[in-house]
Amino acid sequence: MNLDDPDDKSFEPEAFPMMELEFPNSHASERYLLLAPRDPDHYHPVYCLEASLYVIVEFYLTPAQQSLFGTIPTAILSNITRDISLTPSPLSSPSKSISSLDSSPPSSLSSLSSCPSTPPKVNYLRQVQRAINRQDGPLFIRTMNTINALLRTLKYPPLPSDPFDDSPRNELKAAVASWTCVPKEVRGRVYEETYQRCVGPSAMRLEKSYKVWSNEVYGELLPHLLSEIFSVTGLGPNSLFMDLGSGVGNVVLQASMLTGCTSYGIEIGKMPAQLARAQLEQMRKRCRMWGFSMGEVELEEGDMLKSQRVPEMMKKADVVLINNKVFAQTLNEAIRASFLDLKEGAIVVSLATFWDNTKNITERNVNDMSAIFQVTERPYRSGSVSWGNGGGSYYLHRVDREGYRKIQERIESSSSRASRLRR
């Protein structure tokens, strides 16, 4: 750069090396810079392309179609995220024990629809790995051009000779129709691609914007724990999920992508809220690129205690998540009051309980607003949260007004009998 003239463009390169990858949906592709980061822990475009390619081949192609591309290198496959990752990391270095492979393209792509029963002479996926390992740019470009040609032939089969016949289907999209749910590896790629493009570049500024260990921030629940929470609370396409203090939107986005539910998140921090909106826009695009849809998501920037939208949503919510691990008692009390609007059977998930589940309901505490909850304590294992390496507990508070009413009647009846005996 020209330090004396920031508008001087003469030091900028004329063109960066680029490579495209065809995604499953029709007319969906992405271009990647063929550049490596100085810091190996930072986003690596080539590794990102490689991981997405392997997931496409593994989950969108039939075995016969996969044979056209070769076998997925196990040295890399074992490092592809097997669940949704909130903290993306580059893949490990490819194996060095790879034999020399031919780089010639297939003689014909027109016969692809017939899908040969025997693998081709060239294992293109292993050849991609070999090119990355050797940093062989020309080999990588030649191999990826061939792979993209194969993918395009599957996406856009030749049109029938009769113009009145139905157009052939996109073979990659056909796989989606057969799924009962989106494979976690596919969801993992969508989430990682989204996070890398929206939050990753702003990670340092985001960290500085937070008041550490305050009411506004403590840490994140990681994917494995979130998936468990969504499962045990029964979130589904007809559910409404709320996240009070939604940060950069990781939880609401994962909830809607994983379960198809409608999600609502509110965040008081300006920068986290901005990144959440960016992630939502990016994830919607990514889901379309991969050929599936996610549930609706609504994001709000503001104070959960002052928002007019929170009481409206609370009345309809099925599951409310709040990471109140370090909330001040006054904040917990203020939030607890809003739970009176919850419908019967709704569940509040928290990291600190709003009602001591070891405490029996008695005449003294029967009027406590949290007595409407049936509380279950559940353990989480090491690696489930971002703020520590050990395990811990989270709490499910299920609204049970009918059960509370029966307890209240029993206590009132017992109190009345005791009063008569004293008289």
Keywords, separated by commas or semicolons:
Rossmann fold, 423 residues, elongated, Histone-lysine N-methyltransferase, H3 lysine-79 specific, 9 strands, histone H3K79 trimethyltransferase activity, seven-stranded mixed β-sheet, single chain
Walk me through the topology.
Blueprint: E1 18-22, E2 29-33, H1 45-60, H2 63-66, H3 74-77, H4 124-134, H5 137-155, H6 171-177, H7 184-198, H8 203-209, H9 223-232, E3 240-244, H10 250-259, E4 262-267, H11 270-290, E5 297-301, H12 309-314, E6 319-322, H13 329-338, E7 347-350, E8 373-380, E9 392-399, H14 401-422
Helix pairs in contact: 1-7, 4-5, 7-11, 9-10
Concise overview:
The chain is α/β, with parallel strands linked by helices and 423 residues long. Helices cover 38% and strands 12% of the residues. It contains 14 helices and nine strands.
Protein architecture, described:
The protein has 423 residues and is an alpha/beta fold. It folds into two domains: 18-177, no CATH class; 212-410, Rossmann fold (3-Layer(aba) Sandwich). Helices cover 38% and strands 12% of the residues. The chain has 14 helices and nine strands. It has helices at 45-60, 63-66, 74-77, 124-134, 137-155, 171-177, 184-198, 203-209, 223-232, 250-259, 270-290, 309-314, 329-338, 401-422, and strands spanning 18-22, 29-33, 240-244, 262-267, 297-301, 319-322, 347-350, 373-380, 392-399. The strands form two sheets. The protein has a seven-stranded mixed β-sheet. It has a two-stranded antiparallel ribbon with strand order 1-2. Helix 4 packs antiparallel against helix 5. The radius of gyration is 27 Å and the shape is elongated. The model is unreliable at 80-111 (pLDDT under 50). Residues 91-120 are annotated as: Disordered.
